[in-house]
C-alpha cells in the first residue's frame, strides 16, 4: 500500500495551485455576485488542457489518470466551486460516456473536440418528474427512418446554454421501463432543441443551470450512444464516475473554507489574543481537518479503483456522501469561526457554505448515495 | 533557430528565512522554483518556438533535484533538457559555474543563448555575461524585449533611466528580465509528456571538456568572508521644523555619513 502521489501528480498540483491562485481565485467573488458564466476562465482552462485530463492523447486528451482529474476539480473548487463543476460536468458526464460507450466515429466527431476544450459538454437526465426516480422519464424518442424524433424537456442541466454537446436520455420504448431508455448525443444547434429557463440558484451561481426543451428535434440514428434501451445503464455508470468529480469538488470547497479559517483565526483578536489561542477554535479546526483528510482518502481511493478498472460504485458513493457532508459541516463551522464577518460577503466563507449545499444534492442526493452503499451491503 | 536557455532552480525567496544564528538560508520546507528572470527567458524562447519554429533546449547545473525544474520547462514546451550534475561541480561560484556551463554549451549547436539576468538566491548577474566571454560571443544584458529581424535580433536593453535598442547578429547571448513577459503555465498534457515521453539528459564531468582547475569549490576564486542577516533599522528620529531648516539637517546628516 502506498499513499504517495507520483511525481507527475506533484507537478500537476503545482500547476493547479498556481492556476487557481492567479486565474480562478481573483474572479470567484465576481462570478458569484454577477451569476455570469466565467467564459474567460474557460478559455484558459481549455488552453492549458484542463478539459480532457483523463482521456488518451489520441482522443485529444492529456493522457492522464482519474486521480489527476480529481486533483484538478479539488484544487479549482478550493477557490471557486463554479469553476470546479464546469470541469466536472463536462469531463465526467459528457466526455466520459462518449469515451466509454461511444463508437469510433462518435469519439472522433465529439470526444476529440470535447477533450481538446474546443467544445463544452453537458448531460441531461433529470426531468420535472424524474429526479431521484430517474426511471420516470417522460422525454420520448420515436424512430422515423434513420432518425429519432425527440420531444420533452429536461431541468437543472449544468453547463446548459453554454455547452455545445449534450448527452440526452429519452424513452424509446415506454413498455420496457428503464430498459426502454436510450442515450443520444445532441448538438446545441440542432433544430427543435432550445434552452429554457435559467435557474437562479443559492450557490455555484456562475454555473449555468437551465431547462432543455425538445420539440420534434430530429437526431440521426448514428448519434445514439450505446445500444437502444441501454440509456439507463449508461446514465447510472456515468453518474458513478461523476460522483468522483463532485466528491472532489466538495473536498475542494471544504479545504478552501478551512484554509480561509486558519488564516482568519490567527488574525482575529478577542479577549486580548488571536482566537486561534482558544481551545474551542483549535478543536473545531482539528475536527474540520480530520474529516477533510478522511474525505480525501475516500475520493482518491475511488479514483484509484476506477483508474484500475476495479469495481468502484460503492466507493464513489461513499466518497460523494462523505465529502459532501464534510463540505457542508466544514463550511458551516468556517462561517461560525468567522463570526459576524463570516456572515457578510466581505469574506468568502459564506459563499463556500452556499456552494457546499449543492454537493449533497446533485449527481445523486446523499440519500441516493446511501441507497447505493446499502444495496451493495445487502445484495 | 536553435536556442539554449540556461535556468537555475532556486528557493522561492518570498518564502525563505535566514537562520539568525548561522546567517545561512533555512531551505527546509521552502518550495523550489525556476528563477523568475530565467523563466521569462524561457518564455521568450518558447514564443520563438511558437512563431518561428525554434528548437529550445534548457540547461541547468545543479544537484539531481534540479530535474524538477527541467521537467517543468519541458511541461511548458521546451524540446530538450540537460542536467549538468557531478560532485566535482559542488560549491561552484559564478566563475566555475560559467566555465562548466560554457563547456556544456560548446557541445551543443546554437544560434541564441538566453540566461536570466540574475538569480534571486545570489543576485550576482555574472553567470550569463561570463558564459558569453568564455564562448567569445556578443552579449546584450537586461533585455526586456526581443524581436527577430532576419539573422539579427532587435533587443531592448533597459536601464533605470532609459533604454537602448540594439541590433545584434546571432549567435549571441542575452540576459533577460522577469519584466519581459508573463511566463505561460505548464500544460496538463505537457506534464505527462515531461515524465513519460521526454527525457532529462544527465551529463557529468566526463561528458564535457573543461579545465579541471576551474571546477567546483576549489576552482572558485570567490571566498565568502562572512554572511549575516541585515540588522533591523532603528526607528529614526523625527524633526518637526520648517522646510528650510529640515533641508539643512538632512544635508548635515548626509555629510556626517560621507554620503555627499
UniProtKB/TrEMBL annotation, chain A:
The keyword Flavoprotein applies. Residues 229-378 form the Acyl-CoA dehydrogenase/oxidase C-terminal domain. GO terms for molecular function: acyl-CoA dehydrogenase activity; flavin adenine dinucleotide binding. InterPro entries: Acyl-CoA_DH_CS, Acyl-CoA_Oxase/DH_mid-dom, Acyl-CoA_Oxase/DH_mid-dom_sf, AcylCo_DH-like_C, AcylCo_DH/oxidase_C, AcylCoA_DH/ox_N, AcylCoA_DH/ox_N_sf, AcylCoA_DH/oxidase_NM_dom_sf. Its cofactor is FAD. Keywords: FAD, Flavoprotein, Oxidoreductase. Residues 122-217 form the Acyl-CoA oxidase/dehydrogenase middle domain. Residues 8-118 form the Acyl-CoA dehydrogenase/oxidase N-terminal domain. Gene3D superfamilies: Acyl-CoA dehydrogenase/oxidase, N-terminal domain, Butyryl-CoA Dehydrogenase, subunit A, domain 2, Butyryl-CoA Dehydrogenase, subunit A, domain 3. Belongs to the acyl-CoA dehydrogenase family. This is Acyl-CoA dehydrogenase. It comes from Alkaliphilus pronyensis. The lineage of its organism: Bacteria, Bacillati, Bacillota, Clostridia, Peptostreptococcales.
UniProtKB/TrEMBL annotation, chain B:
This is Electron transfer flavoprotein small subunit. Residues 22-212 form the Electron transfer flavoprotein alpha/beta-subunit N-terminal domain. It comes from the Bacteria. InterPro entries: ETF_a/b_N, ETF_b, ETF_beta_N, Rossmann-like_a/b/a_fold. It comes from Alkaliphilus pronyensis. GO terms for molecular function: electron transfer activity. SMART domains: ETF. Signal peptide: none annotated. Transmembrane segments: none annotated.
